[in-house]
Design goal:
By secondary structure, the chain is α/β, with parallel strands linked by helices. It has nine helices and seven strands. It binds zinc ion.
């Protein structure tokens, strides 16, 4: 019985048996769309929740860097179709304590694939000091939780593409953008793997 597990691969999104990697159903979940966030250009590859979001949760909580990189390659391939050019790609930072326990920073793994695909330099321009997890807080709590913890450590000129793994309330992305714009950055757009706002902008227009 244990031999079966060596020979039958399952989709990391939905556990369907098949060749290694995401199955067709889960791949169909990934369509780059504009997500609706006021005052910010946000593009998201897939809805949250959904199959891609499920893979993301697995990658993060199992500390599976290979799986995270698989998602990064999907995001990078889709990002080539984005309408724009950026002077730098900046990942949303993770606190060092979480990088240490997980072994990687999710947004940094994604950004490392996206930057070369767009021909833009990868810049770790932001730092986040350890604190409470954003996911456990509401929008106002998230905002407060970032005050004094998030800071720009390497000013970036021009137009920045901020990369995150998940955008829900948009609070973290907004705080990162504000931090960058307060330095030398002219404009900040956002690219995320999954978002609760995925498809909303298209539905409204
Ligand atoms: Zn699947």
């Amino acid at each position: 019985m244990w031999l079966d597990s060596l020979w039958v691969a399952t989709c990391p999104g939905c556990d369907a048996p098949g060749p290694p990697g995401l199955c067709r159903v889960c791949q169909d979940d990934q369509r780059l769309r504009e997500a609706a966030y006021e005052g910010m250009n946000v593009w998201a590859l897939a809805p949250y929740p959904g199959p891609t979001a499920k893979v993301l949760v697995r990658a993060k909580y199992a500390g599976d860097r290979g799986l995270m990189d698989l998602l990064g390659r999907s995001l990078a391939a889709a990002a080539r179709a984005l309408p724009g050019r950026w002077d730098a790609v900046v990942p949303v930072p993770s606190p060092w304590t979480r990088r240490f326990t997980r072994g990687f920073a999710p947004a940094a793994v994604l950004a490392a694939r996206v930057a070369p695909a767009l021909g833009a330099p990868l810049r770790h321009a932001l730092r986040l000091a350890p604190g409470k997890k954003q996911a456990s807080l509401d929008a106002a709590g998230r905002q407060r939780n970032l005050v004094g913890r998030l800071r720009s450590v390497r000013p970036v000129r021009g137009r920045v593409l901020l990369v995150d793994d998940a955008v829900t309330t948009g609070t973290t992305a907004r705080s990162c953008a504000r931090e960058l714009l307060g330095e030398r950055t002219d404009a900040v757009d956002v690219l995320t793997l999954v978002s609760t706002g995925w498809g909303d902008a298209a539905d409204r227009s």
